[in-house]
Amino acid sequence: MSIHPLPPPKAPTGLGRLPVARWFLLIGALAGGAFAAGVVVILALLAQIVALNPRDDVAAQLGRLHAALIVVFAVLFGCGIGLAVILRYAVLKPIEQLGAQVRAVAGGDFDHALHVDRPAELAELSSHVDSMRRRIVLAWRAASDQADELRRSNGELEQFAYVASHDLQEPLRKVASFTQMLEQRYGSQLDERAKQYIHYAVDGAKRMQLLINDLLDFSRVGRVTGDRSVVDSGAALETALENLSATIADAEATVTGGELPEVVGNRLQLTQLFQNLIENALKFRSDEAPVVRVEARRDDGFWEFSCSDNGIGVEPKYADRIFLIFQRLHPRDVYPGTGIGLALCRKIVEYHGGQLWLDGDAEGPGATFRWTLPAAGDDDD
Length: 381
Ligand SMILES: Nc1ncnc2c1ncn2[C@@H]1O[C@H](COP(=O)(O)OP(=O)(O)OP(=O)(O)O)[C@@H](O)[C@H]1O
Ligand SMILES: [Mg+2]
Prior knowledge:
Elements: H1 20-51, H2 56-106, H3 120-186, H4 192-220, E1 229-232, H5 233-243, H6 245-251, E2 254-257, E3 262-265, H7 267-283, E4 291-299, E5 302-308, H8 341-351, E6 356-358, E7 368-374
Parallel strand pairs: 2-4
Antiparallel strand pairs: 1-3, 4-5, 5-7, 6-7
Helix pairs in contact: 1-2, 3-4, 5-7, 7-8
Bound molecules: adenosine-5'-triphosphate (ATP) and magnesium ion.
Magnesium ion binds at residues 276, 279-280, 337, 341.
């Protein structure tokens, strides 16, 4: 896990564009100019009065005023210089220092400490911001470690599911075929009950084969990453419909698709997604001929797809359960299946960075499933 450096800050507008140091410089220059002009004018006035040859006592008073004014001007000048030095070294420099440190952190160097010694207000502010930085970095590292751990254990689980389902296929095939051979070869010597037991055994083994194959498909999504490219989802839907053409014809179903966009993804998996959802819409049909509609609409950087049907629908309380692996709401003899289709669909969508859910508020009979996929060209957003 990594944190991207922050984007550059928004540039201030209007008078705020000028750095505070410039403001001080500007106002300081104006004040200094006015002060110098004042000094020159007053001294010139005094010189003019002295040039008029005033009485001796007035001249003495003028001399004292002249000296006092020079002292006052010198003190004021010294104060101005002192203020500028204090401003420069006690305020502007520490602000600059803190700014550089904050820029380093914002640029991605999250271990860069924020610290200035003076003035007291800035020192306090920098210590608060720094403790905030340390806490955020600690929390981020903990979350990052957890995410790594989760990724690792997820990978292990997927690997386990893959190996288990892959390696179980062979012994299971043996059980199924030898039980069938037993039935074929010794069927004539067996009574009805024995035949029935063998039938159950073959049926169980076949069902387990189906479950294991489904599990294998499920564990392949994400593990076998597959190509990702810009995919025309309309073409993926077309392929799914071709694969289902016999089922669609049998059910006398009408499946229509709106204008479907290009998305970033794996073509095979997106076809599988459409196929599973439409297969469900056909399977869980009501008394009427199935009518299925696939649509998409733009939602920020994503496309939101929907697949709605006029079938038996799903009670809202089962909206989460139906996405769990091997969870079904109906007995197998009424609606066949293993219960992996929707779990697989959700895994495919999540692997593509989207979400899949049952729309509990959809109008009309039947079920509406919605899912999001990143739009082509926007995946870096
Ligand atoms: N379009 C739908 N209309 C009504 N119920 C649905 C629909 N889609 C799914 N369901 C319900 O959700 C359950 C889970 O669906 P899912 O596709 O995972 O399994 P399945 O279709 O029963 O088996 P599989 O897909 O493995 O053949 C279904 O058993 C069904 O009860
Ligand atoms: Mg299904």
